[in-house]
Amino acid sequence: MRGIARLARELGVSTATVSRALNGNPNVNKATREKVLEAAQRLGYAANQAARSLAQGVTHSVGFMIELDHESTTSTDYFFMGVVEGMQAVLAAHGLDLLVLPCAKSQDNFTFLQRFVSRGAVDGMILAETRRIDRRIELMQSSGIPFVTLGRSDSGGGYSWIDLDFEGVMATAVDRLVGQGHRRIAVTVPSNDANYGTIFAQAYQDSLARHGLAFDEELVFPTRRREDDGGSLVDGLLDRPDPATAIILFYEVTAIGIYRRLAERGLTPGRDLSIIGFRGEESVRFLAPQVTCFHMSLPDLGTAAARALLAQMPLTAPAFSSGVLQRRVPLSLVPGESDGPPASGVR
Amino acid sequence: MRGIARLARELGVSTATVSRALNGNPNVNKATREKVLEAAQRLGYAANQAARSLAQGVTHSVGFMIELDHESTTSTDYFFMGVVEGMQAVLAAHGLDLLVLPCAKSQDNFTFLQRFVSRGAVDGMILAETRRIDRRIELMQSSGIPFVTLGRSDSGGGYSWIDLDFEGVMATAVDRLVGQGHRRIAVTVPSNDANYGTIFAQAYQDSLARHGLAFDEELVFPTRRREDDGGSLVDGLLDRPDPATAIILFYEVTAIGIYRRLAERGLTPGRDLSIIGFRGEESVRFLAPQVTCFHMSLPDLGTAAARALLAQMPLTAPAFSSGVLQRRVPLSLVPGESDGPPASGVR
DNA sequence: CTGAAAGCGCTTACAG
DNA sequence: CTGAAAGCGCTTACAG
Hints:
The structure is a homodimer of 347-residue chains. Chain A has a 6-stranded parallel beta sheet, sandwiched between helices. The first copy, chain A, has a 6-stranded mixed beta sheet with strand order 7-6-8-9-10-12, covered by helices on one side. Chain A has 3 domains: 4-47, 434 Repressor (Amino-terminal Domain) (Orthogonal Bundle), CATH 1.10.260.40; 61-159 and 298-330, Rossmann fold (3-Layer(aba) Sandwich), CATH 3.40.50; 166-296, Rossmann fold, CATH 3.40.50.2300. Chain A is 40% helix and 17% strand. Chain A is built from 13 helices and 12 strands. The mean pLDDT of chain A is 92. The first copy, chain A, is α/β, with parallel strands linked by helices and 347 residues long. In chain A, α10 (195-210) links the parallel β6 and β7 (220-223). At the A-B interface, α4, α6, β2, α7 and α12 of A face α4, α5, α6, β2 and α7 of B. The structure holds a DNA duplex (16 and 16 nucleotides).
């Protein structure tokens, strides 16, 4: 005999009583409860997860599906762990375990998710790196399992998501540069297929349009999350009939390569080329001149996602404001010295 | 009626047959199997995880416990995701799910682990950041659940671990510096309580002793995983009666701060101070002069850990060479220009 | 090759 | 406040 039955026998009570005592059911005599709790503690007993889940119909766990591609996992810009920190704290406070579920880039992410969902392995799910068209969202909706995505998608319609305010960031950056006198503003966009790339690029176009500036496809540079992906675009930016005088970076780490290439050409960031980075990062903080960028708290992003999920889960929903939550997290500008009026003085 | 029962009824077979077909039991008529498989596929049916685990006594999942502290999760030096990449690939190939289990620094890591273990939530466990004395190891041993640690510990005795060859790295670095003529060699060590700090420091002492060099406690600098933690130690290193002429860095990112401070003082890395970094990192790769460092593959480390675990798990052990595996993964030196003969020419 | 039935270790109405 | 018993959804000897 093992598990709860063994504990019950040793204590001379029924398994029902042990179960109630352990689960905080109020209908248990105080002395009995203490006896049970003490014994469980002493013997290191905890209810078997599988049996518990089967009986209760809930797992008390939440999955966070992330995709592993070598480019990002080994990047200095990898930021999901900071987000996990916030998620974990909120979920733990509500008695939920966070299971980070890594899906290899090489396997189909739909099938991967489907397995966890159809097996009932989690009570809720957080998805990252949403695509513009993302079948995972419809999968989650038809599964009935509460979920929230980190990032928007055109799929699914009215579901909960948390995303960064790319539009706000871009508007602020372009406003600032235009205010400094720039007219030829370039941009880098991620070279992967996540939806944020599309959103960032669209916000760029919209912001230019707001200022009556022409959109030039040749000023849009897809880059990877790599320091050296910045350097190679500098020449293309400057050596043209109408050179760009400013650039907005999706991956701020690429500033490192840009600074190097500028230095090689005897040029100075902020004077010969204005640079604004998207997400202020540790690895870039030590560049001189300091990169003008946008700041955000990664744990706060995780916290927001976890809350949006809890608001949908049966056990926790009552404590949260109801319904679907769709929120863009604003970022604040951190002025540096990497931008300023164009050297040519064009205005 | 739901789950397997519903599927069975629809197909006009017993649940036993459905179960066998789905689990690849050979004792199933081919036509029957195909019928079942087709229906399961069509209806998106997958066996309930909890029921399956309860009946089988195994979860087909492996946990990787990592500790979240804000310093490391937001560091550009965070490297566990690269390791996860390798783990996940190996485990998936053997039909095992990898659950990354984040434990907040603020909660007790022993209790955290105990919950997952005593509940039977995983079939195997990988532990990171082992301490010199680490009660988790005895916990795992008494649980009977296969486990492997990323990092050594004095606890537990003969269990499986994978660790980096800190001794080899240190010996190579010191040999190289001594060969260049250095006699006063400083070192940075991590300021946390993980065992690798102790090992690194001990290897430093041993390597000095091998060359008959005196150990000077004042040349040992605890640092965090932060770029700016390098700069502050430069002055202490140089402004003393017998200045250090070389330094070996545990966290290579701190080289960034060191380079900056040296530049401020009009000094040159590799000439006025020789620098060797431990783990070659993306964020440091663009420093000039290039930092001499040691290279390793993060996914390979994960692969090794996963294999060491599989070798202990009942279902997979037969395919692996048996027994306890304790392995130090070697790193290879990548020469840069950040070290060389001391400027004073002392020999 | 297939089915009826027991059993995995819990939780929870139900009855007292 | 407590216990006997059913039930959660599977898997797997056992019998045929």
